[in-house]
Amino acid sequence: MERAKINAGQLFVLIFLFEMGSALLLSLGIEAKQDAWLAVLTGMCGSLFLFWMYYRLYLFYPDMLPTSYMQHIFGPFFGKIAAYLYILLFMYNGARVLRDFGEMLVTSTYTETPLFIINALLLLIVLYVIHKGIEVIARTGEILFVVLYVLAVTGSILIVVSGLINIDHLKPVLEGGIGRILKTAGTETLYVPFGEAVVFFMILPYVNRPDKIKPAMFSALVLSGINLTITMAVNIAVLGVDLTERSQFPLLNTIQAIQVAEFLERLDVFFMIAIIVGGFVKISIYFYAVVIGVSDLFRVKEISSLIFPLGLVLLFLSMVIASGYAEHIKEGLRFVPLYMHLPLHVILPALLLTVAALKKRHSMNKRKQS
Amino acid sequence: MKTRLCCLTSALLGIILLSGCWSNEELPDLALVSAMGVDLEKDGRYTVTVQVINPGNVAGESTQGTGESASPPVSTFTESGWNLTEINRKISKKVSRHMYYAHTNLIVISEKLAQEKGILQVFEVLERDHEFRSSAKVVISYRSDAEDIMKTLSSIDKVPSDKIINTMKATEKAWGEHVSVSIRELIAKLVSSGEEPVVTTFHTTRNKGETLQSIQQTNPAGRLKAAGLAVFKDGRMVDMTTGETSKGIVWLLNKVKNTAVSVNWEGEKHAAVYDLMRQQTKVTADVEKGGDIRMKVDIAAEGNASEVKIPINLASPDVLNKMEQKVEETIKQSILSAVDKAQDLETDILGFGAVVHRTDPEAWKRWKKEWDERYFPDVQVDVSVDVFIRRTGLRNEPFHRN
Amino acid sequence: MPYRLRRLFRSKKQQTHSIADQKNRTPLETSLKENLKEFKKRTGNSSDVVIRTLTTGGMQWEAAVVYIDGIVDNLSIDEFLLEPLLQLQVPASPVQQQDVPEFIAEQVIALGGIDPVSDWETLFEAVTIGRAVLFIDGAAKALSASTIGGERRAVEEPPTEISIRGPREGFTESIRTNTAMVRRRIKNPNLRVKTMKIGRQTKTNVEIMYLEGIADNKVVEEVRRRLKQIDMGSILDSGYIEELIEDQPSSPFPTIHFTERPDSAAGNILEGRVAVFVDGSPFILHMPAVFIQFFQSVDDYYSRSFIASSLRMLRIMVFLISLYAPATYVAATTFHQEMIPTQLLIVLSAQREAVPFPAVIEAFIMETTFEILREAGIRMPKAVGQTVSIVGALVIGQSAVQAGIVSPAMVIIVAITAIASFTTPSYSMAVAARMIRFILMVIAASFGFYGLILSFIVITAHLCGLRSFGVPYMAPLAPFIRADFEDSVIRLPWWEAKERPRLISGQNSVRQGENLKPEAPGTQSIRKQRKNTGELDED
């Protein structure tokens, strides 16, 4: 483990930016039609439970990386397999996010630039920051957090000033009943974006004040959930359900609709900044988790020697996971939640927690007996 | 460390320098398309006319005293083909620059195309393309081709597309017979099941306004003028409304900002004029158990008495009350005529379906399919208008009172 | 492993060097003649070396006073050294020949600093800094008297840091004057000054100044350690020292702040920073420095807090403009024409129509021209400066536009950038922006805003990764420290700013008393008074 430490405020910022990352880009929970925002909110509430689970796990082993304590819980063989699965998950998710961003830029602005170049550039930046370590990622996150918030506030003001908000688009509320919302939350929003924060159990051991982790984690989750809810509600209120559903990047369309004083129009750059900032943090966190995971699992002392090769893997993975955007999205909606997110975000952590708790009780009983 | 830094730098330099510049375009290489017009040929092909800005003639050194420059502020290019993407590529045969659509703020659809083929196909590509602004306005050409509208020069606004948009906005604000509709709003209404769009139509005189001479007169020969509102049903233009009916539609869409309402007074036609300052229209639905649908339209309007032709005492509250009632009646009539028109045409341009959807989602599910044909024509509409005359200008009684 | 070896090797070498230094000293002779001969030989008969021979003690002792003309105070040599010696009569009790120097030092010379000198090396150290040395025949010892003086620049208004309000004096080239100016402001015995000599040839006096009990001891130690490691031939200015003790010399951003103003220096020392004075340089360094400090001007502290805060925010915004303005112009006109308002785009397009270069080349030409002009303007004598500005105005102004080589919009952008780059209070930070600007222009031309946003992230990450003597460079923004934030981007009124910067001072963080906020008389305070005296008893 790197000896660097981050504080609880930085953890908050990182979780927040991570959640906002690519989630801002997509039409979250649009299966629930105009109640998508409620689905996001429900997903957020559900994820509080997931987070509690990750937090409990951390409490059992506060000084250890998950890749180590999994071996502790499941024994060396199965533990290593589990740890390896997580590293693969993070790698794959990181590649997915990278692909999302590349596709966004290529579709919206850089139509003639090859996807590879766009991805390579972003990854280059990520490598640079990873090289500097978690402290620098966290500090950079703090500055970017401010940037993102300034943008968000300006954007909201502009949207309101242009008179784009049409509350009627959000009505009728609960048309499909609670069931539809729960279904959407359970199959989609719970995992993306909220469940994705499972990666933070790799980061938690780096926090300097363990007592402050809980409030930081949950408030970050709630704040990002609220922000995403607002974003989704605004998207629907501006564009209508149908357009939001058909749009590849609803937020981009919302921002393009801004028209203030016939002067401020086509503020695509706003969108680009928000997306790149969020994506950068998200990919960095995933990649950092991969790097420390690999170094911990395979006992590689020099973290910096891993960064380049793993970065190349991430880059090529992002290119080959899908041949086109449609395929990429289909994979993301159909296969990833079922075969990757459900087992690794929910089932395996639950299993880990149960076994860890049993082991602890067992050892305590033993101690009592002796 | 050093070697790694060198590797990184050289990789970075390589990427930057070798990549060259993919998506970039210098300003002088762009043809700024200000407006695009789409016509329908007899054989079903599209004809697209683009209006390209000549920047030098709009913003150039015209201040140096040569007066009007010798060439027009815009040029147009026409090409036909089976789809818009192809046409856009083919048009490069005629233009020396890359066609740039990100600043296109006006789409003109010819009446013929709107009536015969419908507009759905045209807007599919406009929505999909990343360059187009979704805030671009849409108009329908009335009794003229879209090409004619593209070619007509205008005098006050140098760029004709600006002229059309500004006219539309100004008249929407001041008179209230037209609405300006953007691509985004239009598509939203086209796809939603309880709403159909209306689009402003524009008219010009063919072959009159294409030369610079035409705008060197105080009364330009070819003139772009807002005509009426094109009414759509399932993506096809079915009729055009004008006058009071159009106004009624705009009232119901809650888009009236200012307008003038004249009322008859003791036998004298259009004797007193009410100048509307602000209004609020609320449409609510009342779905009864039996399936009868009643729409309630509540209008609260505020304004001034601005002109009287006959000597009536505007200082008297009683007179004003009477006038208020007459104005209310006039507004009501124009709204009812709009409702009649829409029900005749069996197209829900008034958005009643969306209101019903919000009020009673369950019932809406049953009605959705046949709304326009079966349910909408039978909807009962109650209109209640509340007009307030707040002020009467700088004078109380007219000077011709005796 | 190799690193450790190298270190081991180096430390041994240093040790042997210093031991040799002590051993190699050559003692003085007893005979005055021999000494003077040797002295002449060693100075090579330089013409500014003065040797004054005399006899003293009632004609019984041969003596000579040597000094270097120009760096000594002639008056004190004449009045307090030569005159007493010449008027000295035969002493009442006889003095042994070898004790004469002690006798003279104790009873004759009327100068403050007198040191005995017994070897040539010490003697030359003394002579070269402006002390006068007295040889006496028959003793293997000489006396060096403190007669340092000579012509020095007087205290003037600091030309590089001008303030509207606030003291008008600036540091000079004399280290003693400089430390005195700070001491005059901090009347506290805890103000420590430590001296060391750096530079093999120049033997420059370098002094560390800090406030014991407030400055972080670790930082003080670290500064001292880094200064000791310097093994240079010459130190002519504090710039040498800055470059040699920086944390990250490869970064374009400065991690050590310098100032020419004693009030600013005092303020920084009071916040717990360590100041380094270098003899011969009017610029003193203080460390640790944080990014935001380079945007603070002394005037901020003398003007009202609300105005100071808004000015600071303006400076940061303007700094970003000076970095990004030309790059943004290039990116917007070549990649993102859609975001430029239509009317503006038509105007820009009409202007660019006749320009033969791509936007980025145009920007490069203009920015380079401007940099050339600026460089010329700084180096030119004042009389010629006028010409430069006239020619410059022609080149990057009207004629360039009329010739159709550049567009008027580009001229405006360059002008904005130029003005913006002058608003950064710190010169070293402004220079950093100048360099980075060109790189950003290349990035903008290759990747548009995508590249610019990425570059922003890289710059931010780079800044966040920097440290200055252990303090994160972007503190108190990242890591965010609320207590330190009160004097960073904003400046809270003094009564709100109760604590010193935590990361810098490390100890003793409370700065001042409570309840400093002034209140209008007649309301609260009077009520309080009355209440205390019992005059007011209705509540």
TrEMBL record, chain A:
Residues that span the membrane, as ranges: 12-30, 36-61, 73-93, 113-131, 143-165, 190-208, 220-241, 269-294, 306-326, 338-358
The keyword Transmembrane helix is annotated on this UniProt entry: yes
Highest taxon, organism lineage: Bacteria
Cell compartment(s), UniProt: Membrane
InterPro entries with a match to the protein in the record: Spore_GerAB
One Gene Ontology cellular component annotation held by this UniProt entry: membrane
Any Pfam family the entry gives: Spore_permease
Keywords attached to this entry: Germination, Membrane, Transmembrane, Transmembrane helix, Transport
Membrane topology: Multi-pass membrane protein
Location (main, coarse): membrane
Gene Ontology terms: biological process: spore germination
Keyword Membrane: yes
Family, as annotated: Belongs to the amino acid-polyamine-organocation (APC) superfamily. Spore germination protein (SGP) (TC 2.A.3.9) family.
Identification of the protein by name: Spore germination protein KB
UniProt source species: Salibacterium halotolerans
UniProtKB/TrEMBL annotation, chain B:
GO cellular component: membrane
Coiled coil: none
Subcellular locations according to the entry: Membrane
Signal peptide range in chain numbering: 1-24
Membrane protein topology class: Lipid-anchor
Main localisation: membrane
Record keywords, A-Z: Germination, Lipoprotein, Membrane, Palmitate, Signal
Pfam families in the cross-refs: Spore_GerAC, Spore_GerAC_N
Domain Spore germination GerAC-like C-terminal as annotated: residue spans: 228-393
A Gene Ontology BP annotation from the UniProt entry: spore germination
PROSITE patterns in the cross-refs: PROKAR_LIPOPROTEIN (PS51257)
Domain Spore germination protein N-terminal: 25-202
Source taxon at top rank: Bacteria
Entry-linked PANTHER family: SPORE GERMINATION PROTEIN B3 (PTHR35789)
Entry's family note: Belongs to the GerABKC lipoprotein family.
Name the UniProt record assigns to this protein: Spore germination protein KC
Organism (species): Salibacterium halotolerans
UniProtKB/TrEMBL annotation, chain C:
TM region(s), chain numbering: 313-332, 405-423, 435-459
Compartments it resides in: Cell membrane; Membrane
Keyword Transmembrane applies: yes
GO term, biological process aspect, one: spore germination
Keywords: Membrane, Transmembrane, Transmembrane helix
Membrane topology: Multi-pass membrane protein
Stated family: Belongs to the GerABKA family.
Name of this chain's protein: Spore germination protein KA
Source organism per UniProt: Salibacterium halotolerans
